[in-house]
Please model this.
Amino acid sequence: MILPIGPIHPGLKEPLRLKLKTRGEKVLSAEIDYGYVHRGIERVMKNKTWQKGIFLSERVCGICSYIHTQTFAETFEKIAGERAPLRAQYLRVLTNELDRIQSHLLANSTYFKVLEHETLFMYMLSLREPVMDAIELLTGNRVNMGWNVVGGVRMDAEEKHLQSIMKIMNELEEQYDKYVEMFEHGPLLGLRSHDVGRMSRDDAIKARAVGPIGRASGLKHDLREFHHTYRDNFDFKVIWRKEGDNFARTMNRFDEITQSISLIKQVINNLPEGKVRKKIDIPAGYGDWRNEAPRGEVSYMIETNGNLIRNVSIRTPSIMNIDACAKYMLHDVATVADAVATYASVDPCIACTERVVILDESGKNREFQGIHDINIK
Amino acid sequence: MLDSLKDIIRKSSIHVCLINTGGCNGCDIEVVALLSPRYDLEQYGIYVHNNPREADVILVTGAVTEQWREKLQRIYAKAPEPKIVVAIGNCPLSGDVFNQEGSSVYAPVSDFIPVDAEISGCPPRPSEILAAILGVGPDAIAAKGRQKQ
Model:
């Protein structure tokens, strides 16, 4: 029997259709339908200046909106062969890690909501709110921050705001262990999470799983290791686990939050003086850049003629992770409830993943001028 | 007497269905933030459960994409009367940055279903969303219920 879930469903935050093939309560396999929130961002971004493109890149995804603008700006900086001032690079790390903390807390809270553990769901959200305050203090906005520009960041951080962020981080660190303990050693949550939705390391490689999902299956790969700011200035360790089940994915995100708190403290303690923005002249050329988003690896490939963006391609992490979930994790799951929990543990972000490739009858890609011009049967 | 009793009950139990018709998720996570203990949506009798068949308030976030044009109307028809629609953020009002030549959005939402309240912002703050639901919700639901009778 095929059990459809979505696109509007109490268990899902975002529109997507999960088709579970079931026998009785057992889930045999799963299929995922996308296409509900495709807006055509790459198409719209063509023939625009970067000043307009950066707003579009911010709205690829609302949860990890920050890292998209950073990657966009760093792609242009790579084309120009320059780097942002050191203080701006530090402030980018600070905002990136704050964004990662709030995203991971939201992902774990959703997982607990799907497990019907309301208490931890509420605790996670109440831990998240001070972090959102910290983001608002620094950038002036809660979600879409408008904080990055090509050549630096838009404004400088004040010393009193940095001290407030330090205080918020200290409070978070104090309370945090108690809740991790609740999950790690709680008998009920453990029974629902251990050995559910297991993905082996080989499968993770085959599915190109990235981010915390790949790292929980034993793929020790974090792009922050190779990023010049992190590599040269910060003490940083990659968090990874071997089990590859729901428990490992959730714990991996918890441990990464600890790592992010330590990085934020390093930034505030060692913030160098100087300018936060410099003028960069952009030549014609092609550039690509990859960064570690909260969900994994996001890459931008941009071709420019010095003024306008001629071509852009965005690859977001969720598309690999959701396919890994459908193919390798939702395979012989004991119950439907476990299948939905496994889906939530992957931290899917649908707004990122929507892509359209139009093939004509000969099988070649075809240029198209927006969806209003074509007839979809 | 029965009518006034119904009004009282409707005012204090508002069921909310959230529909993302093609936004960036920003407004959706602000609605999730409303559930947190700081804003505590449920103390006002508002319950977010994403089931259109029992919804009193439909929250629409996002510009309307190709897939949602018919489905949004079908979901609106499924919700029982009286119902109100609150459009959250710039996307359902104007399409925001997506409403440009070559994109695949069909904003505004009011072309497809009647909208009772609109909140601008990209995204609006959680307190603004809460104020809008509370400001328009209970009275409009009660008034619409009376109209129908």
